[in-house]
Specification:
CATH class of one domain in chain A: Alpha Beta
CATH superfamily of the largest domain in chain B: Nitrogenase molybdenum iron protein domain
Strand content of chain A: 5-15%
Number of helices of chain A: 23
CATH topology of one domain in chain A: Rossmann fold
Number of strands of chain A: 14
Oligomer: heterodimer
Radius of gyration of chain A: 25 Å
CATH architecture of the largest domain in chain B: 3-Layer(aba) Sandwich
Largest interface: A-B, 92 and 83 residues
Distance between the termini of chain A: 49 Å
CATH architecture of one domain in chain A: 3-Layer(aba) Sandwich
Number of helices of chain B: 17
Structural class of chain B: alpha/beta
Chain lengths: 545, 457
């Protein structure tokens, strides 16, 4: 596309990188140089980027903490578990309804999503220990609500003062008998980003919830949807499409989820991983313990959705299902194509930057490309090298001091319940036909040569990128939104979707095309200068009527 | 129902807080620090704290909120955060070039006992603080007080910069407390109108209600300058608006620089604004100009015009002590009935003041400090109200109970206006009345039968 080439020609990735690095003290520049990559097509493999390393103190990062990853992201969306935050009030307050996990309260009507629960630790709890207060708070929550489960989350001071939240949880669970109480050591200082919190959450969900309900669920073609958080109703749209195809979603981890979904996840026959970063641990554990294979899917983008559905169909290998999937795709696509045809004349050739999450900066490139837009720079907030370069790098990843502190749990095949879902021959036949299990090639291979890939982008770098490259749209989170827009560049939040959505599936794709069309073509970006700023010289006297 | 699990029966809770009416100290310190010109707030703790505070303030103002963090790891939590803070100070002055860094602590750095003064002094010794630049700090343990306490502590931290030359400048310090940028602008306008030369700190006007011009300024035009903060020590006096938000700083100036102070209520509503204006003219020895009296008269006029719709309407309020005290007094002065009042911030004194203000009301008044919105909701279920006033979180109660709702306080995450239109002083009183009346009258128009539906109200 001519316009795109013209755009790219105006800047040079190496010069942009140099321009950024020259502002930093030498030590910072050395570190950042390894996290800023100019993409190139290598003969063998993918260029290497440094990721999942410490944030530099004083550099205004986009990242959050381990508590945010554990409580906010993974456990937050489960409606019928009382999420009790053990700590001073702030951590519970900030995670209260701010992540837009849409929820259907279900037939049982149990829904604690609009509530924030906290032990509101005071100085005497810090000095004398908070276990007593935690115990009392768990008791009060039980007496008030009688929930199926109470989850306890540790905030920074809890680990420091040595409260044994796991012992308290065990004691209370035994005492109640009909309420599962479990705890997460997700103190904010652990790890280097939210990512450590995902891992901690995954471990405990697997340890305390998965496998508790062996009851056979009705339905055919049973899958788990892992790493889908139902922001803006994404999960609802995916569920709509799955249902239409006749696919049964046993458990979503964890958008619009319930206690029982986690408890039943081991009864599914395939795990489909959306956000590789946040949940691949659970996918692996489900496979090792119960024999459920996993595949990477992506429901962001209409084509990607169709591809993912076909991939699920191919796994089950049932013609009825595969035919139904084709019918659904054929039914859904006309509306998608109509929307593309409408917006594309206005979006074609425009450029985007995406700096968000651990998968979205990759997934959303699909949607932009469907609109004829090109991603010129992208990166993750909290991903690891495998999310950039592909899972083949996992064996070579160095385990540093920060990662070593995050528990790895050893999982073994369940003696009674491990059941391979496919025979060796079936698996081999699938693999021979090019079917990829446990595979994620990462973001970098999908990006153009000469584009920029930047890990843990910070405020200064974002501003520089926008100033030099002048993209037509920039995507990140709420903290970045208005500094970018002050520069006159539209900014789309890809954590909260700016309170819109859904953007997943077919209907979501249409929503996204329209939203981006609205943003990049809004009249407001033309109002920046007043008439007297455009023409400051007084050239003539005023002409009265 | 959104809050479907909230029972009407009120049981005793000693350990479990549900739906808080407060948050933690550091965010208050961050907001206050943004009211210094050229200042980058810095959170000494895990990076999540800073991310949460920036996100909340951004959602409230729809403006960029720049702040840095020491990004503690497990190692820093064990060995102390000195290395992180020193590195942060160097990086911040190199990359962002602020005039001042305002460090606040977190529950993490407080629990391990980092000594910020010692680290700051060390940074200065190591020449990490460029000449003419400053690092100020305050301690904000999240497990003491609330966001209000953090605000107060950072404002007190600012007064550490004040110097006394021995020669009075003739200016008056005004500490506005945790009010909106538009409110700070209004306090400056009103003071100028009365004819008093004030130094307002903190001052977030021009910082958190900035224009869009195609340019991003990390440090916008607004904010009190370091020079002004230094000169605060030579003022003739300090007016501290709000006991919880502003009194500590004012008293510190008195101790440090012998600047006498007076603690007033925040100027919300008629009577509190009257006292503020009266204090201003007395200190400066000027007579109040006709223009101010006219603005006051407009507020009285509107109260009398619409009194029938306000009379004996029951109101539930939640928020922060200083704001609630002034608002309760205003509502009582309108002949409204504030019947349920909650703050998450501790303070037995708060309960006593509210009881005193509402003593003459023909109804029971529930008031509680260190409490939460779960209890407020239960009170409302037991004694319904005509209006709820507070931050955005109240919309869940308002929808479930089908009660008119006015957003006022922090944070407001779903509406705009607080950045631009004040609710302090007489002008702000007009806006408050407009908001209250709109909520009540929209409800009346919705609920009146066809026969009783009125064109003129």
């Amino acid at each position: 596309m001519a316009t795109t080439d013209n755009k790219t020609a105006q800047w040079n990735a190496a010069e942009v990188k140099e321009e950024i690095l020259k502002k930093y003290p030498p030590k910072v520049a050395r570190k950042r140089a390894q996290q800023i990559l100019i993409n190139e097509a290598l003969q063998n493999g993918t260029p290497e980027i440094q990721a999942n390393v410490r944030t530099i103190p004083g550099i205004i990062t986009m990242r959050g903490c381990t508590y945010a990853g554990c409580k906010g992201v993974i456990m937050g969306p489960t409606r019928d578990i009382v999420n009790l935050v053990h700590g001073p009030i702030g951590c519970s307050f900030y995670a209260w309804l701010t992540r837009r996990n849409q929820t259907d309260a279900g037939e049982d009507g149990e829904n604690y999503m609009p509530y924030a629960f906290s032990t509101d630790m005071q100085d005497q709890d810090i000095i004398f220990g908070g276990e007593k207060k935690l115990k009392a708070a768990i008791q009060e929550a039980y007496d008030l609500f009688h929930p199926k489960g109470i989850a306890v989350f540790a905030t920074c001071p809890v680990g420091l003062i040595g409260d044994d939240i796991h012992a308290v949880a065990r004691e209370m669970k035994e005492k109640f008998g009909d309420c599962n109480v479990f705890a997460f050591s997700c103190e904010g200082y652990k790890g280097v980003s939210q990512s450590a919190g995902h891992h901690i959450a995954n471990n405990q969900v697997f340890r305390h919830l998965v496998g508790l309900n062996d009851e056979k669920k009705p339905g055919e073609y049973k899958i788990n949807l892992l790493g889908e958080y139902n922001i803006g109703g994404d999960g609802f749209e995916i569920d709509r499409v799955l249902k239409k195809c006749g696919i049964t979603n046993i458990a979503t981890f964890s958008g619009n989820s319930s206690y029982d979904q986690f408890a039943s996840a081991h009864t599914a026959d395939l795990s489909c991983v959306m956000c590789h970063r946040s949940i691949n641990y659970v996918a692996d554990m489900l496979e090792i313990k119960y024999g459920i294979p996993w595949i990477k899917v992506n429901f962001i983008g209409a084509e990607a959705t169709a591809k993912s559905l076909r991939k699920i169909g191919q796994y089950f290998g049932d013609k009825v299902l595969m035919d139904r999937i084709e019918e659904v795709i054929a039914e859904e696509m006309p509306a998608v194509q109509e929307a593309i045809a409408d917006v594309r004349p206005r979006t074609e050739g425009k450029t985007a930057m995406l700096f968000v999450g651990g998968s979205r900066a990759h997934h959303y490139q699909e949607l932009f490309s469907e609109m004829g837009m090109k991603t010129v720079a992208a990166g993750y907030e909290f991903a690891h090298r495998d999310d950039y370069e592909g899972r083949h790098v996992i064996p070579s990843l160095k385990v540093d001091a920060d990662s070593r502190n995050i528990e790895e749990i050893e999982v073994e095949a369940d003696p009674a319940r491990f059941a391979p879902r496919k025979s060796e021959e079936e698996l081999k036949a699938l693999k021979d036909s090019g079917y990829a299990f446990k595979d994620y090639a990462g973001m970098i291979p999908d990006m153009d040569k000469g584009s920029l890939v930047i890990d843990d982008l910070n405020q200064f770098e974002a501003e520089k990128l926008v100033e030099i490259i002048k993209p037509d749209i920039f995507c990140a989170g709420i903290k970045e939104k208005y500094s970018i827009q002050k520069l006159g560049i539209p900014m789309k939040q890809l954590h909260s979707y700016d309170y819109g959505g859904p953007y997943a599936g077919f209907k979501g794709a249409v929503n996204f095309y329209r939203e981006i069309d609205r943003l990049v073509n809004s009249k407001v970006w033309g109002y920046m200068k007043a008439p007297w700023q455009e023409n400051p010289e007084l050239s003539a006297t005023y002409v009265w009527e | 129902m959104l809050l479907r699990h909230t029972p009407k029966e009120i049981g005793e809770r000693k350990a479990l807080m549900i739906n808080p009416a407060k948050t933690c100290q550091p965010i208050g310190a961050m907001y206050a620090a943004l009211g210094i010109h050229g200042c980058l707030p810095h959170s000494h703790g895990s990076q999540g704290c800073c991310a949460y505070h920036r996100s909340t303030l951004t959602r409230h103002y729809k403006e960029p909120i720049s702040a840095a963090t020491s990004s503690f790891t497990e190692g820093a939590s064990v060995f102390g955060g000195q290395a992180n803070l020193l590195q942060a100070i160097e990086n911040i002055f190199t990359v962002y070039e602020p005039d001042v860094i305002a460090v606040h602590t977190t529950c993490l750095s407080e629990t391990i006992g980092d000594d910020i003064k010692q680290i700051r002094d060390k940074a200065e010794k190591q020449n990490l603080v460029p000449p003419g630049k400053h690092v100020i700090y305050c301690n904000t343990p999240s497990y003491v007080g609330s966001h209000v306490t953090g605000f107060s502590n950072m404002v007190k931290g600012m007064t550490e910069l004040a110097e006394s030359t021995g020669k009075k400048s003739g200016k008056v310090n005004v500490i506005p407390g945790w009010v909106e940028p538009a409110d700070m602008e209004e306090i400056k306008r009103l003071s100028a109108l009365v004819g008093v030369d004030i130094t307002l700190f903190p001052d977030t006007s021009g910082v958190l209600n900035g224009p869009m011009s195609g340019e991003f300024k990390m440090f916008p035009e607004g904010g009190v300058t370091i020079k002004e903060l230094k000169a605060a020590g030579d003022a003739v006096g300090t007016l501290a608006l709000g006991e919880w938000c502003s009194a500590d700083a004012a008293r510190n100036l008195d101790t440090k620089c012998k600047v006498p102070c007076k603690v007033l209520d925040m100027p919300f509503g008629l009577a509190a604004t009257d006292r503020f204006v009266d204090a201003l003219r007395t200190i400066a020895g000027v007579s109040v100009p006709e223009e101010v009296t006219r603005e006051r008269g407009q507020l009285v006029d509107l109260i009398s015009d619409m009194h029938q719709y306000l009379y004996h309407k029951k109101v539930a309020l939640y928020g922060d002590p200083d704001q609630l005290i002034a608002m309760t007094e205003f509502l009582v002065s309108l002949d409204m009935l504030p019947v349920h009042i909650i703050t998450g911030t501790p303070g037995g004194k708060f309960e006593r003041i509210i009881k005193k203000i509402t003593a003459g009301l023909p109804c029971e008044v529930n008031v509680k400090a260190s409490s939460d919105m779960f209890l407020l909701h239960q009170w409302i279920k037991n004694e319904p109200v005509d209006l709820i006033m507070g931050n955005t979180y109240g919309k869940y109660i308002a929808r479930d109970e089908d009660i008119p709702f006015v957003r006022w306080g922090f944070p407001i995450l779903d509406r705009v206006g607080h950045q631009y239109f004040p609710t302090v002083a007489y002008k702000g009183g007009l806006r408050l009345l407009e908001k209250i009346l709109n909520a009540l009258l929209d409800r009346k128009d919705r609920d009146d039968s066809e026969q009783r539906f009125e064109l003129v109200l």
